[in-house]
Amino acid sequence: MDEREQLKLSNQHWQDDDSRWQQEIYDWQHETQRLVALLYMMEKALPEHSLKLEQHKHRIDRHNQDLSHYYRGLVSLNTLDDSNVSDISQQRKIHDRMEKSHSAMRKEHDKFSQEYQKKMSHFRDLAQRLIDELEAVAD
Fold first, then answer.
1. For 37, which DSSP code?
2. E strands in the chain
3. Which residue of 27, 33, 101, 138 has the fewest CB atoms within a 10 Å radius of its CB?
4. Count of domains for the chain
5. Straight-line distance from the first to the last Cα atom of the chain, in angstroms, rounded to the nearest whole number
6. Burial class (CB in 10 A: 0-12, 13-18, 19+), 18
7. pLDDT digits (tens, 9 = 90+) for 30-63
8. Residue 138: how many CA atoms within 13 Å on its side-chain side?
């Protein structure tokens, strides 16, 4: 093989290396973009969930205050004369409203609980996808 052929062969090896490097760079960029997308999805999921959790907690706290207020009314009613029918009738109306309120709060909480489980499962799936992607990149 003459020197010119050796130079061409060396050049071909360099071009092959360059093509391989270009492909590796493309693959790495693609992998990085996928990881960033997964991180973004995870990052977006948590604050939205945290906000909804805070709002739900606030509604439960408000309901708890209503229950405490209602209970104090029951206690004070017990100290009055039981013959006062209007007080008992009024208390029955309040009790019925509290019963409806509590039932609505229970439904809301059950729904929130189901959504919470679903969102945490989705977040866990995203985390697992991120781990799987990282393991694939590391190999």
1. H
2. none
3. 138
4. 1
5. 40
6. exposed
7. 999 999 999 998 888 887 778 889 999 999 999 9
8. 6
For residue 16, what are the CA distances in angstroms to 2, 6, 30? Answer: 21, 15, 21
| Sign of the dihedral through C-alpha 24, 28, 31, 33 | negative
Residue matched to tokens 């990085």:
32
The residue segments making up the domain with residue 112 are 3-138
| Report field, pTM of the whole predicted structure over 0.85 | no
Tokens representing residue 92 in the block: 């029955």
Cβ neighbors of 116 (< 8 A, separation 6 or more) are 49, 53
